[in-house]
C-alpha cells in the first residue's frame, strides 16, 4: 500500500507539472501587455512624471514581473515559486496572490464540503428507500421529482430559490457574505449572520445535486438487491435491515463511491456559477473576476487549486476502493 501511494504521488507530481506547463504557456499566449496595464495605473496615481521616470518604472515593472526573461525560464521560476508558496503577484489587487486567495479558498472548501455532507445525508437514505420500495407510489413520485431536478440547470434552481426564499418569504438575503458591520458584533452574532448568508447558496447546491445522486444510488441498490447472495441471505432468515445495510448496501457502495468522488470534484467547478450568482467571495468568483481583468497570475493560482483538488480526489478514490471492498487490492 505504501509503495502504491508513493508511486501515485510521483504520478500526481508529473501530471501537476504537465498541466501547470500547459496552462502557463497558454495564458501567456493570450494577447495583452501586463506591463502596460500596470504602468497605466502608476501614471494615473503619480502626476507630472517625466519621460525618464516613466521609462524607468516600465523597466522596473518588467523586471519585477520577470518579463525580461525567456518564457521557459519564466515558467521554471514560476513553478519553483509555486512549490514554495509564492504564487506570484496580483495586478488587480496589487498584493501577493497568496494573500488574495486564502480567504476565497477557505470559503469555497467550506461551502462545498457542507453541500456534500448535506446532499449525501439526503440522497443515500432516499435512494435506498426507493430501491427497497421499488415501483411503489413513493418510488414513482421520487423518480419524477428527481428527474425534474436532474434536468433543471443549477442557475434556474438558484433563480427560483432566490425568488421564493429571498424575495417572497424574505428568509435569506439575495447575495453577499455578511451584513456590513457584522464583524464588529459578537462571535455568535457574526456566525449567525454568516450562516444566514450561506444558507441559500448551500440549499441551491444541495438541491441541484439531489436528482442525479438519488437516481444513481437507487439503481445501484436495485441491482444489488437482485443478486443471488441477497436471496440466500433472506432464505437464511436474516433480518431485512441486515440484508439491506450489511449485504446489499455494502456491495452497492463501490460504484456509488466512484460517482460521489467525481460529483464532488464537479461541485468545485460548478460552484463558480453559484459564487457569481450569490456574490460569494470564493475561488470560483475570484477566478471569473481575474479572467475579466486579465490578472493571469491570480488565474493560474486558482486553476492550480482545482488541479490539486482533482488529483487528490482521484487518489482518495483509488484508496477507498480497497477499504470498501476487501477483494480489491492495490498493487505496488
Describe the protein in words.
The protein is built from twelve helices and two strands. The chain has about 325 residues and is mainly α. The protein has a two-stranded antiparallel ribbon with strand order 1-2. Helix 5 packs antiparallel against helix 6, helix 5 crosses helix 8 and helix 5 crosses helix 11.
Characterize the largest beta sheet: strand count, sense, and whether it forms a barrel. Answer: 2 strands, antiparallel
| β-strand amount | under 5%
Averaged pLDDT? 81
Number of helices: 12
Distance between the termini: 7 Å
- Total beta-strand segments: 2
**Poorly predicted runs of 5 or more residues:** none
**What order do the strands of the largest sheet run in, or round the barrel if closed?**
1-2
Q: Class by helix and strand content? A: mainly alpha
What is Rg? 25 Å
The helicity comes to over 70%
Order of helical and strand elements: HHHHEEHHHHHHHH
The shape, in one word, is globular
Amino acid at each position: 500500500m505504501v509503495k502504491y501511494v508513493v508511486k501515485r504521488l510521483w504520478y500526481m507530481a508529473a501530471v501537476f507539472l504537465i498541466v501547470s506547463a500547459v496552462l502557463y504557456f497558454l495564458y501567456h499566449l493570450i494577447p495583452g501587455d501586463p506591463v502596460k496595464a500596470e504602468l497605466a495605473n502608476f501614471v494615473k496615481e503619480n502626476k507630472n512624471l517625466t519621460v525618464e521616470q516613466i521609462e524607468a518604472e516600465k523597466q522596473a515593472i518588467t523586471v519585477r514581473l520577470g518579463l525580461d526573461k525567456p518564457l521557459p525560464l519564466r515558467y521554471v521560476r514560476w513553478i519553483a515559486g509555486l512549490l514554495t508558496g509564492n504564487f506570484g503577484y496580483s495586478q488587480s489587487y496589487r498584493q501577493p496572490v497568496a494573500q488574495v486567495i486564502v480567504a476565497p479558498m477557505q470559503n469555497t472548501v467550506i461551502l462545498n464540503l457542507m453541500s456534500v455532507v448535506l446532499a449525501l445525508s439526503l440522497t443515500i437514505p432516499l435512494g435506498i428507500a426507493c430501491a427497497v420500495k421499488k415501483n411503489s407510489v413513493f418510488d414513482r413520485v421520487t423518480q419524477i421529482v428527481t428527474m425534474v431536478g436532474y434536468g433543471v440547470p443549477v442557475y434556474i434552481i438558484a433563480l427560483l430559490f432566490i425568488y421564493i426564499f429571498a424575495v417572497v418569504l424574505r428568509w435569506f438575503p439575495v447575495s453577499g457574505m455578511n451584513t456590513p458591520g457584522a464583524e464588529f458584533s459578537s462571535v455568535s452574532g457574526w456566525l449567525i449572520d454568516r450562516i444566514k448568508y450561506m444558507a441559500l447558496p448551500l440549499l441551491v447546491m444541495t438541491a441541484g445535486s439531489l436528482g442525479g445522486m438519488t437516481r444513481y444510488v437507487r439503481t445501484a441498490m436495485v441491482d444489488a438487491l437482485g443478486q443471488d447472495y441477497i436471496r440466500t441471505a433472506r432464505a437464511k432468515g436474516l433480518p431485512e435491515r441486515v440484508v439491506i445495510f450489511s449485504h446489499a448496501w455494502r456491495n452497492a457502495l463501490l460504484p456509488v463511491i466512484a460517482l460521489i468522488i467525481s460529483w464532488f470534484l464537479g461541485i468545485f467547478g460548478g460552484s463558480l456559477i453559484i459564487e457569481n450568482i450569490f456574490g460569494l467571495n470564493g475561488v470560483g468568483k475570484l477566478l471569473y473576476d481575474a479572467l475579466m481583468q486579465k490578472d493571469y497570475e491570480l488565474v493560474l493560482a486558482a486553476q492550480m487549486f482545482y488541479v490539486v483538488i482533482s488529483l487528490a480526489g482521484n487518489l482518495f478514490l483509488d484508496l477507498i476502493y480497497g477499504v470498501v471492498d476487501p477483494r480489491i487490492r492495490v498493487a505496488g
